[in-house]
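#struct-queue
[09:14] JT: dropping the first one here, sequence first, then the C-alpha cells:
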Amino acid sequence: MIVYAGSIVFGGVNPLVAVTLLFALAVVSAQAGADITSPWIILLGNASYACYLLHTILIYEIGLNWVPLQGTVPFAIGVIGLSWVCAIAWHMSVEKMIHRVRNRSLCALSVSSRAASSTLSQRM
C-alpha cells in the first residue's frame, strides 16, 4: 500500500479515480438499459444509508460494553454483518412504514386539492 497526498492508493489506482470510473460505468449502463433487477441488491441499496448511520453506533456500543476486540478483523467482520442485519431490519420496518404513511398523506392531499380545484372551476 502506497500513501500519497493523504489518500491511499490500491494497486496503483487512486480511489477518487476508481469511484469516478465506477459511477460513470453505472450511469452509462443504466442509460443502456442494464438496470439492476436483483431484489437482494436493491434491498441492500435501499438499506445502505441506514447501515451507514448504524455502524458507528454499533462500533461504539459493542466495543464499549461487550467485546474488547475493537480493531481486530473478527470485530470488523462482526460489526459489518450486524450493521447490515440491523439496517435491513430498520429499512423493512421503520423506513417502509414512514414511506407508506407519507404516500398516503400525499395521495389524500392530491385528491383534496383536485376536488377543491374542480369545485372552483365549477363555480366560475
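[09:21] JT: and here's the second one, same format:
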Amino acid sequence: MTPADVRELFMEYMDESDASVLSDARISAYLNMGYSDFWLETTRILPHAYMTYFDVAFGGSDTVDLSVAPNRIMQAATLDGSRLTQAFVLTEVETGRLIGAPYKGTRALRSMRSGQEYKWSLQGTRLMLDHISSKTLRLFYSYKNAITWTEATDPVDSYEVGHSLVPCFAYEHYAIRDAALNQPLEVRKARLMQRYEDYLRNFQGDDNMMEMVGSSFGYN
C-alpha cells in the first residue's frame, strides 16, 4: 500500500470522506502514530527489519556527531529522510566484505577504558570510540523513514503485507480522542496482526543474523 492508500483507508475507518472534521495536519499526526506502532511491532518480531548501514569517517578523532553533515543520520533533518532509531554494531570497513571486524559496544562511558578490545558507544548524537582513529568505520543501525501520507507511488516501506495494520493503529489513537471504539475493527486488527506476525517469523532463516558481529543496543 502507498501512503495515500493508507490515508484513504484511515479516512474510511473514521467514516470521513474529507478533512472537514480533522485537518490534514491532524490526519498526518494520527497516521504517523499508527506507523510508529506498526514499526515497533515489526521490530519487536524481526529486530533487524529496518537495518541498514552508514560508513562514518572519524578523520583523526575519537568522536563523530551524527546530527551534523556529512554524517547526519540522527535528528529530524537527516540527509535522506530516514532517521537512526537503534544502533546495532560498529565494524571495520573491509574490501569485499559487508561486515568487517566488530568493535565492542557499550552503554557506559566508564567501560570504554577497560579490556583489550576496541570499544564504541553512542551517547546522545555522538558516536564515540575509546581511541583516536583516522579510519572509516561501518555503523549498522535501524532506521525509520519520514512519510508523506499523500504520496501515491511507492509503498510505505518494504513490509507491504502488513500495511493494512497502519490505519488500524492510527484509528486507535483517533478513537481515544473521539471515544469511538470500533469493535469489528479491533477484531480485524487482531486477525491481521496474527497473520503479519506469522509472516515475519518466517521471513528469514536465521533468527539473529547479527549475533556473529557483536552486541546490539538501542537509542530512541
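[09:30] RK: nice, looked through the second one.
[09:31] RK: Confidence is low (pLDDT under 50) at residues 209-220.
[09:31] JT: good to know. Residues 51-144+207-218 form one domain.
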